[in-house]
Amino acid sequence: MAAEIHAPLARLAAEDTRQVLITPRLLLTAAYLVDRDQVATFRQEVEALSAAYPALRFLCTGPWPPYSFVTAGGPETTTDSQWLMAVDCYQLEKSKDASS
Question: Which of 17-21, 40-44, 84-88 has the highest mean pLDDT?
Fold first, then answer.
């Protein structure tokens, strides 16, 4: 499921990093390097994913300076027109009342 969530967001990004199943509830945590003119489209895609997966909670923050994509001692791969967008995807806990 993490791959299904990650794929449409990664298509909108120049680069991305992700970690899967950090905890049993944190399904995906990812950072995406998004062109400035794609930020609104990226947020819309997160909203669409949230609607498509009602059992999950999405937290999208940014735009942020793209620190996650700058390497020490290496050439910078980012430009002034790119921003970091962070997305966390949590599995919602099932309500105890729902099972009764």
Answer: 40-44
**Residue 77 to residue 82: CA distance in whole angstroms:** 10
Expressed as residue numbers, the domain containing 35 is 2-70+78-92
Residue 12 in domain = yes
Give the pTM.
0.81
- Residue 100 in any domain: the answer is no
**Cα dihedral 10, 16, 17, 22 sign:** negative
Number of domains in the chain: 1
